[in-house]
Amino acid sequence: MKKLKYISSLLFVAILLTGCSEKETPEDRLQAYISNWNESKFSDMYSTFLNAETKKTFDSDEFVDRQEKLAEDLGFQNLKVTYTKPKEDTEWNEEKPAVFPIQISMDTIAGPIEFEKEMTWKYEKRDDKENWFAEWDPSFILPKLTAKDKIQISTMSAKRGKIFDRNGNPLAVNGTGYEAGIVPGKFTDETKKSELAKLLNTTSEFIDQQLNQSWVQPDYFVPIAPVSKNNQALLEQLIAIPGVTYQETEMREYPYGESAAHLVGYIGKMTAELLEKHKDEDYKETDLIGRQGLERILEERLRGKDGVGIYIKSPEAGATLQKIVETEAVNGENISLTIDAELQKNIFVSMKNEPGASAAVDPQTGETLALVSSPSFNPSEFMLGISGDRYKKLSEDPLKPLFNRFAAAYAPGSSLKPITAAIGLEKGTLKPEQGLSITGKTWQKDSSWGAYRVSRLHPEAPNPLNLKNALIYSDNIYFAQQALAIGKEDFVSGLTQYGFGEEIPFLLNISPSQISNDGKIASEGQLADTSFGQGQMLANILHLATIYEPILTNGIMYKPTLLLDDKTKQVWKEGILSKESADVLKNDLRSVVVDGFAQAANIPDIPLSGKTGTAELKTSAEGRGQENGFFVSYNTNNPSFILAMMIENVEDNGGSGYVAEFAAEVYKSDSKNK
Prior knowledge:
Blueprint lengths: L1 H19 L5 H13 L3 H8 L2 H6 L2 H14 L3 E7 L14 E11 L2 E16 L2 E6 L15 E7 L6 E2 L5 E13 L10 H7 L4 H8 L10 E6 L4 H8 L4 E10 L7 H4 L1 E4 L2 H6 L10 E5 H5 L1 H4 L4 E7 L8 E6 L7 E2 L4 H10 L5 E6 L6 E7 L4 H6 L3 H8 L13 E2 L6 H11 L14 E2 L10 E2 L11 H6 L3 H11 L1 H10 L26 H8 L7 E2 H6 L2 H5 L3 E2 L12 E3 L5 H17 L12 E10 L8 E10 L6 E6 L8 H17 L2
Parallel strand pairs: 6-14
Antiparallel strand pairs: 1-2, 2-3, 3-4, 5-12, 6-7, 7-8, 7-9, 10-11, 12-13, 15-16, 15-25, 17-20, 18-19, 21-22, 23-24, 24-25
């Protein structure tokens, strides 16, 4: 028994040693090779797994460097290599090659690639060791790729979406211009680089970056910067530099120019800061991006997505490109606005480049028909890359053409008085036919007001003074007394019902209107000031137009919309004014134009209603301050829009009557266009 145990022990050791020295199968080798491949360990793949014939045909550069470069240039991601397992009873014969079907998939800049190939493994002796080694050629990188082939990447540019007004008039479209660029093989004078950079308002470093892109070839056209078709002088200077030329290209155009510049905005060159901000959104340094206005706000919808193709280019003469993978360009979305571009233009022209802002809304739907800031700028200048000197001139212009006034908020002055009246009517403290006895130019409730007094411009107003005459003569004392009757809390509550003190629900970022800095009214003096749109009160011009809607809708105020496909009649506030009160105000606002100080708007055949307002901006109690004039108006018989207009510095131009004159021109032009 002891002898048998000894023999059994020797047999066990022999079997164990035999198992430890068992040779690798071709499948074992394939698994290890694929593991390295999936991790892009190309050097290990080359040194450890390729057979002698393959290494003789392809050196390390052709195997390792080419795969690493293509992986980077083509954006290989999610590489996955698998193989079809052989049958379990497969026997490996060292005299015969072992062949495995392998599956290769990856994502690229042009889309996913999937293909299948057969990989052959041969048994070879190397460095006194024997093992299985793989045959390889470039078609394992990309389908049908050979050693002599080149890879070409082509980009199919997506067309940027267009912006239209409600009637199909173009506000931002893709016209044509030129792309200035370089043919590297002909651009041999390096000293001309700085000259070219200056002409195109860029840098020598940026030009180098463009020329050093992986796809660039000596005879390729490399774009550098856009140039307007109208700038013939610059084009002539460019082509005088050897190797510099230009090609016609699509270019953004803004048909309504300055009149819609602050609203539509413009596209411009990508900056390093913007590229970092949008680093996960596939932008390139050469891209244009929305920089201001709706071009920026709607960038995601307008930009589209470029198409990319990866192709094999054979060295054989006349050979056609062989497509590997291609993703078609997806054009940006065309977007229509509620804006009436002709009305927008008419308003802008009527303002005569005076500093100010205007807004027009449809009182029955809440649609925004115009948003104007004056003076303005040419958006095409910024789209093409404005020079430093030109930008400095615009930014230092005392009229501030770059400042978007319709996005700001201003003291509305007497244009608020109809809203004060509306709050009093609904509260029941204001009786429209009841007259208040008011005499003199100033008034104060009692001595507790100290030095503060309410002043009025027209002490000749009838006495006692009812609501209609108070609006006609724009009497500050009347409205101050009505506000006191309403009371601070109820007056704040009433203004809140009209949207004061809250964000304006609008696509663009515009300043909200405020009752005061803290939303409260601290004293009776402040209450008096606020009743006629002074004190700390501020109103946005779009909101100012919107708060007149309840007068025409019997108490409904709609959210202002800007996109034509937005749902209309989105109620923002309702039940804030009864029909009875609305009828009183409609009648009185017509009288303001007919009998009051908006005579410039009392035009034949176009009956207008509205309210003027003048807000004085004083830095001290002494002297005279800047005055901003307002006029909020609508066509009495056909109120298709409410127009709110503000002009700055009207103190020497006749006050708010000056604004009424501008507004009248809008209605005249609008009437001619219909």
